[in-house]
Amino acid sequence: TGHSLGATGVQEAIYCLLMLQKGFIAGSVNVDTPDAAVGDLPLVTATRDAPLRQALSNSFGFGGTNASLVLRRWERETSSNPW
Fold it and tell me: End-to-end distance of the chain based on CA atoms, in angstroms?
């Protein structure tokens, strides 16, 4: 069906927000034979539950339009330090 071009970054950010809200990590598809250099990095190949507080959305667009967003789950402050 094609690439959504300019809307792709928004779609990625929305998916990150859904993962933060619902508490899961989406698995990466088609990771059947990872490079040996990956070593012991925990590749997520199947969706799993996870109590996420932050998520990083990297968008690398055509023509060098790049952006990275760090999203954080909103929680009521219970102390004087919001971080």
Answer: 42
The total number of structural domains in the chain stands at 1
* Joined tokens for residue 1: 């069906």
Q: Which domain holds residue 16?
A: 5-30+44-72
Nearest to 28 by CA among 48, 3, 8: 48
Count the neighbouring beta carbons within 10 Å of the beta carbon of residue 9.
Answer: 20
Residue 16, judged by CB atoms within 10 A of its CB (0-12, 13-18, 19+), counts as: buried
Q: pTM for this structure?
A: 0.76
| pLDDT tens-digit readout, 52-78 | 999 999 988 777 788 899 999 987 776
Q: Are 53 and 72 in contact (CB under 8 A)?
A: yes
